[in-house]
Design a protein that fits this description.
Blueprint (H helix, E strand, L loop, with lengths): L15 H15 L8 H4 L40 H7 L5 H12 L4 H9 L2 H5 L5 H9 L5 H13 L13 H7 L7 H11 L4 H11 L12 H10 L15 H8 L6
Helix pairs in contact: 4-5, 4-11, 5-8, 5-11, 5-12, 7-8, 8-10, 8-11
One fe (ii) ion binds next to loops.
Length: 262
C-alpha cells in the first residue's frame, strides 16, 4: 500500500481528498476574513444542494467579515490592469498559447491570426474550462477585431472535426483523452457546420492547426515577438480590464476577485 494511502492512527477511514478539504478549510479559517467559494468552483466535488447548510448545533459562530475584495492568497492586481497583468497574476502557464502563437508567426500568418492563437485558450488558463472557446471569445470580444473573437469561439467546435485539405487530422491525443467512441454534442456539431461555411473559417481552423503541436513543456518561448502585435490589435481600455463599463467588464472583475462574497 502506498504511504499516502496508509491509514494513520486517529485518521479513521477519511480519504485523501477529505483530508485535503479539511486542511484547506483550516487554512481558510485562519484568514481574517471569511472566504466562501462560488458554487461553480466546487460543483461536482460537492452537490450544490448540500452547500450552505446551517452550522451544526453547538458550533462556535464565525464572526469574521465576509471577503469583499482582494483575496490575500493571490497577488494584488494593479488599479488599471492590462491583458498582460492578467497573464502574470491570474492565469496559469502561458507556455501553450505562446507556443501556438510562435507556430503561427513562423508559419507567416497575419497578425490577427497570431493574436487569435495567442489568446485562444485564455478561458482554460484563467476562467472556466467547459466551453472555453465561447468564454474566451466573449472575454476579449470588445477589445479585438471581430474576426479574432469569432475564430476563438469556433475553435471549440473545429478541433473535433478533421480537415485533411487544410492539414488538420483528428488529434491522436483526443482519442487518449476522450476514448475512440467519443461523440461531440449536437450544439458543437451545429456550430462546426455553421463555421465551416463562414468567411472566417480558415482563421479559426488555423488556431486548431497551430494548437495541437503546442504542448511541449520544455519549449523555449517568449512574449517579446508578441508585444507589438498585442499593442496593435488588443484595444487595452485606459480604465483597465474590468473597469471600462464594457459588457464583459464583470467577467474580468471576477477573475481579479474570484472569491468576493457578492
Ligand atoms: Fe482550446
Ligand atoms: Fe489550445
Amino acid at each position: 500500500m502506498n504511504e499516502n494511502h496508509r491509514q494513520h492512527p486517529g485518521q479513521g477511514a477519511r480519504s485523501l481528498s477529505e483530508r485535503a478539504d479539511e486542511l484547506e478549510h483550516r487554512m481558510i479559517d485562519e484568514l481574517e476574513q471569511r472566504i466562501v467559494k462560488s458554487v461553480l468552483f466546487v460543483s461536482g466535488d460537492k452537490d450544490p444542494r448540500t452547500m450552505n447548510q446551517p452550522p451544526p448545533p453547538g458550533s462556535k459562530p464565525d464572526r469574521r467579515k465576509f471577503l469583499m475584495g482582494d483575496d490575500p492568497r493571490l497577488p494584488k492586481m494593479p488599479e488599471t490592469p492590462t491583458l498582460l497583468d492578467f497573464f502574470r497574476n491570474r492565469f496559469g502557464s502561458p507556455n501553450h498559447v505562446l507556443q501556438s502563437a510562435t507556430h503561427a508567426l513562423k508559419g507567416g500568418h497575419d497578425e490577427k491570426t497570431v493574436l487569435a492563437c495567442l489568446l485562444h485558450d485564455i478561458a482554460v488558463a484563467g476562467f472556466i474550462r467547459a466551453d472555453h472557446g465561447y468564454w474566451g471569445a466573449q472575454l476579449i470580444a470588445p477589445y479585438v477585431d471581430e474576426e479574432v473573437s469569432w475564430a476563438i469561439r469556433y475553435h471549440q467546435a473545429l478541433r473535433f472535426f478533421p480537415d485533411e485539405a487544410a492539414g488538420y487530422t483528428y488529434p491522436e491525443a483526443y482519442i487518449r483523452y476522450f476514448g475512440p467512441d467519443y461523440q461531440v454534442e449536437d450544439y458543437v456539431r451545429a456550430d462546426y457546420e455553421y463555421a465551416r461555411n463562414h468567411k472566417w473559417y480558415m482563421t479559426s481552423r488555423l488556431i486548431t492547426l497551430n494548437d495541437i503541436y503546442s504542448f511541449d513543456p520544455n519549449a523555449k518561448v517568449s512574449w517579446d515577438p508578441f508585444m507589438d502585435i498585442i499593442g496593435r490589435h488588443f484595444k487595452q481600455p485606459k480604465e483597465g480590464l474590468g473597469f471600462d463599463g464594457s459588457p464583459v467588464a464583470h467577467m474580468w472583475r471576477t477573475i481579479i476577485w474570484p472569491t468576493k462574497f457578492l
